[in-house]
């Protein structure tokens, strides 16, 4: 048991899917896993382990933002020996050709979060995806005929920006979309020399103003989840 996770040693698989929303974790476990048990209810941050195509896999919510995912990633790696951490998140599009429900693999995560500025005494650090998981995820997507986009994303500390137009600078420099956790996840994984990848589904577009509902974000991002599950 760690401070934020009540699982026993051995309850959590080497590979874990990490949606921000704990109810998305519950939906993934109920929809895709067999012989499932719940290993965490602390703070309602539901975590489950089960079998996917006969192989053990876990899924747990992370909450929103870099501090929250950093706590869970740290405890999963250092207390439960997790080796592959795969975020399955929602994101807002920053590009005209990235539409609602498109899938984005985050090769790198730029950020306005203060955590790495603090960690590296004001210097820049470039949090990047695991090449191994990235390559494997590409192969899976190809074999399933699922089109994906890949590139730099923004991990932001704010969901509601004071200046809505501020996204345009990131957009001009090729950033594909915005979410709130990948830079934290990639940094903690790198620190402990384990693998991490963020797979994102576009839930909003800052360009067109379109968006999906909360229920759709909880239960309908199937292609992203099926790619992630096959990474076991
Ligand atoms: O859908 P999740 O995985 O929570 O991801 C995105 O959604 C939340 C904001 O609504 C933030 O956590 C952001 O990163
Ligand atoms: O962080 C996020 C996630 C989804 N959509 C956004 O606009 N921002």
Automatic annotation (TrEMBL):
Reaction(s) this enzyme catalyzes, per UniProt: uridine + phosphate = alpha-D-ribose 1-phosphate + uracil
Source organism: Algibacter mikhailovii
PROSITE patterns from the UniProt entry: PNP_UDP_1
Pfam families found in the cross-reference section: PNP_UDP_1 (PF01048)
Protein name (database record): Uridine phosphorylase
Keywords, alphabetical: Glycosyltransferase, Transferase
InterPro entries: DeoD-type, Nucleoside_phosphorylase_CS, Nucleoside_phosphorylase_d, Nucleoside_phosphorylase_sf
EC number: 2.4.2.3
CDD domains: PNP_EcPNPI-like (cd09006)
């Amino acid at each position: 048991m760690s401070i934020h996770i009540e699982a026993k040693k051995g309850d959590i698989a080497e590979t874990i899917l990490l949606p921000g929303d704990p109810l998305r974790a519950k939906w993934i476990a109920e929809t895709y896993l067999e012989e499932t048990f719940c290993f965490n209810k602390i703070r309602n941050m539901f975590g489950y382990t089960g079998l996917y195509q006969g192989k053990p896999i876990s899924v747990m919510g992370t909450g929103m933002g870099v501090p929250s995912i950093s706590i869970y990633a740290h405890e999963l790696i250092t207390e439960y020996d997790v080796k592959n951490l795969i975020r399955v998140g929602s994101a807002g599009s920053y590009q005209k050709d990235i539409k609602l429900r498109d899938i984005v693999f985050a090769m790198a995560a730029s950020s306005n979060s203060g955590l790495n500025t603090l960690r590296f005494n004001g210097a820049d650090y470039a949090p990047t995806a695991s090449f191994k998981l990235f390559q494997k995820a590409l192969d899976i997507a190809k074999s399933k005929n699922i089109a994906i986009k890949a590139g730099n994303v923004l991990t932001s500390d704010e969901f509601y920006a004071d200046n809505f137009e501020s996204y345009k600078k990131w957009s001009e420099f090729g950033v594909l979309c915005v979410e709130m956790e990948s830079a934290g996840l990639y940094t903690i994984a790198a620190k402990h020399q384990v693998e991490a990848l963020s797979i994102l589904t576009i839930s909003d577009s800052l360009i067109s103003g379109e968006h999906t509902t909360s229920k759709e974000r909880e239960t309908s991002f199937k292609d992203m989840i099926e790619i992630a599950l096959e990474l076991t």
